[in-house]
Amino acid sequence: MGVSVIIPAAGFGERMGATIGKQFLLLDGKPILVHTIERFQYCDMVDEIIVSTQRSSFSLIEEIKKQYALSKLRPPVEGGQRRQDSIALALRTIDAQSEIIVVHDAVRPFVHSKEITQSIETAKYFGASIVAVRAKDTMKQASTDGRVEKTLNRSSLWSVQTPQTFKRQILLDAYANAEKFNITATDDSFLVEQLGISPIIVEGSYENIKITTPDDLLLAEMLSKRFIP
Ligand code: CTP
Ligand code: MG
């Protein structure tokens, strides 16, 4: 069963506030995006990797492919306005042989091989899987003016990450449904949930952070010193 990986990397990194997209910032001397692609390049279950990015970064992607010998990396696909659009555009180009599609943020370089393989195995069996960690903080629900309405039961709450992995047809159906009914989401699982499908949680690691704000970059530098894929 073929496995395609889509890496959305077309964001502008507004919350990071750097002059270039945060996916291209250096971590331990190498672009964050390269660290992320390498996690999948070195996973035997993965057949191809598709990165969606801004057109102005296409040549950089081709350079990266050569420099780091990323043989599984396909030609870049132009991203869209929302993360969801960037993924939808990449979906059109996946190999016809691929039965499994993994979606993983460009800015989560600390994903372990175990999370990738478990995510794929679980999706093969159940159709849809998401990597997540147990919520650490007590979570409250509040009104828009900041008044606490209730305390949620932490034991049933998860912080969701990527990879999120799906059987090909499930993800295609979810995206078609989202387009038809104008649904916007920041994660693919939500779009799949709208089909009445419940993805299975694969318990991941707190190291798998999404590099979003400048403090995450400091944390990332620290994590990269001890990270074992
Ligand atoms: N992404 C994308 N296309 C978009 C928006 C986001 O491919 N139109 C990608 C980002 O490049 C990133 C991932 O989706 O790898 C997660 O998004 P996020 O952390 O929100 O990144 P940015 O959108 O770049 O950051 P910000 O929201 O702070 O601008
Ligand atoms: Mg964003």
Throw out a few tags for this protein:
single chain, 229 residues, alpha/beta, 7-stranded mixed β-sheet, two-stranded antiparallel sheet, 33% helix, binds cytidine-5'-triphosphate, binds magnesium ion
If you had to describe this structure to a student in words, what would you say it looks like?
The strands form three sheets. This protein has a seven-stranded mixed β-sheet, sandwiched between helices. A two-stranded antiparallel sheet has the order 2-3. By secondary structure, the protein is of the alpha/beta class. It is built from seven helices and eleven strands. The longest helix is centred in the middle third of the chain and has 14 residues, at 113-126. It has helices at residues 32-41, 58-67, 83-91, 113-126, 168-180, 188-193, 214-226; strands at 2-8, 26-27, 30-31, 48-53, 77-78, 98-103, 128-134, 140-142, 148-151, 158-167, 200-203. Strand 4, helix 2 (58-67) and strand 5 form a beta-alpha-beta unit. It is 33% helix and 23% strand. The protein binds cytidine-5'-triphosphate and magnesium ion (MG).
